[in-house]
Specification:
about 400 residues; seven-stranded mixed sheet; about 40% helix; binds pyridoxal-5'-phosphate
């Protein structure tokens, strides 16, 4: 809910979510119990991955992943310069240096495999990829680089729940789900994500030893959970490493289970809206519609549009705001934030170009094609192809 005529995103919440929360309240067991267990199991089945570990949020998922993988002070993690700040912040938080690699280009703002190779140093231990807007990165090339240099591969899959990576060399005829393509993957269930629980996150992995460490780190390094003790399956516990409290509660897990059931339908609704946007926006000369010719399978988390230049972006965003249409920027270039500026990074030409002209347009499963046309008609004001605007109305 918002005061915007067309908000950037909106929840698909209804009576199922209300009932799920009521069920938990009536059970009087509020954290890490049967709902969390069921959510983890259902999520793992959905992705076709061995382990799913629910956590407090996506940032906690990244933090735990770095720790479970044994990253240490002095190590370096290569990651895209266009990303939410969490992956870089969590690196710095454990004394690891984030090394920013450039994106491929305006049309494909995901990490450039060739630039990953350029960033590798003797201290490099890991690569983080981020499937921008829900579109899988060039994973075949990135997997090869990681194998060649002995690097661990982490997916920041916060945009891409339900996306599938299609690769001509993939053994699976339908491709593998995002979240199964590296050593470990991180998801967020923040309010504006495709699967929303308010706060919430999850880590997936096929590696048993990582899963065990993640479960321990999530809850103080304790060998048993209070739920197990409550059920009488255990009476005591040991602490075998120094962990955190990054647990998810039962209320959010119950919401997550309902949202997971809606995910496939809502992601395909998002796809329909993106196709409508693309139909109207791709003819605009000077503008770039990222991924408009993408052949793979996306979760369609964001509708990004790149203006011809910074000034045009400013004018368009202002006009949209006056019309009650909410927009955002995903994302500023990480290397240019005050807290990261001291880290030397090489030329990030494409990232900076993208960061200064990208606009994120409204996209949510319940959006109508009429709303898409309203957004596009305001953008036409700033394009040379004003004729199209007449066609539209
Ligand atoms: C949302 C998001 C995060 C952080 O998740 P939180 O649940 O908000 O901590 C990290 N990376 C990306 C790409 C995100 O979109």
């Amino acid at each position: 809910m918002s005061n915007w005529h067309i908000p950037l995103s909106d929840l698909d919440y209804g009576s199922e979510e209300t009932m799920a929360v009521q069920r938990v309240l009536q059970s009087k067991w509020l954290s890490m119990g049967p709902e969390v267990q069921a959510f983890e199991q259902e999520f793992a089945e959905f992705l076709g991955v061995k382990h799913a570990i629910a956590v407090a949020n996506g940032t906690a998922a990244l933090h735990l992943s770095y720790l479970a993988l044994g990253l240490e002070p002095g190590d370096e993690i290569i990651q895209p310069a266009i990303n939410f700040v969490a992956a870089a912040n969590m690196a710095v938080a454990i004394g690891v240096k984030p090394v920013f690699a450039d994106i491929i280009g305006l049309n494909e703002p995901t990490i450039d495999p060739a630039d990953i190779e350029r960033c590798i140093s003797p201290r490099t231990k890991a690569v983080v990829v981020m499937h921008y807007g829900g579109y899988p990165c060039r994973m075949a090339e990135i997997q090869t680089i990681c194998q060649q240099y002995g690097l661990v591969l982490i997916e920041d899959a916060c945009h891409a729940v339900g996306a599938r990576y299609l690769d001509s060399q993939a053994r699976e005829p339908h491709g593998n789900m995002v979240g199964t393509l590296g050593d470990i993957a991180c998801f967020s269930f923040f309010s504006n994500k495709n699967l929303a629980t308010g706060e919430g996150g999850l880590v997936t992995t096929n590696r048993d030893n990582l899963a065990e460490r993640l479960r321990l780190l999530r809850s103080h390094g304790m060998t048993t959970l209070s739920w197990e003790r409550h059920k009488g399956h255990a009476s005591s516990y040991d602490v075998i490493l120094h962990g955190y409290n990054y647990r998810l509660d039962e209320l959010r897990a119950a919401l997550g289970r309902v949202q997971l059931r809606k995910l496939k339908r809502n992601n395909s609704r998002r796809q329909q809206i993106v196709l409508a946007y693309q139909k109207h926006l791709t003819p605009l000369s000077g503008w770039t519609v990222p991924f408009w010719d993408y052949l793979g399978d996306s979760a369609h988390h964001l509708m990004a549009l790149v203006a011809p230049d910074r000034e045009t972006r400013t004018h368009v965003v202002k006009a949209l705001k006056q019309a009650g249409i909410q927009t955002s920027f995903h994302y500023p270039c990480l290397a240019d934030f005050t807290a990261f500026r001291h880290l030397t990074s090489h030329d990030l030409e494409q990232s900076r170009l993208f960061a200064q002209s990208v606009i994120t347009l409204p996209l949510f499963p319940t959006m109508t094609t009429d709303q898409v046309e309203q957004v596009c008609s305001h953008i036409y004001e700033f394009s040379s192809l004003t004729k199209l605007k007449d066609d539209l109305h």
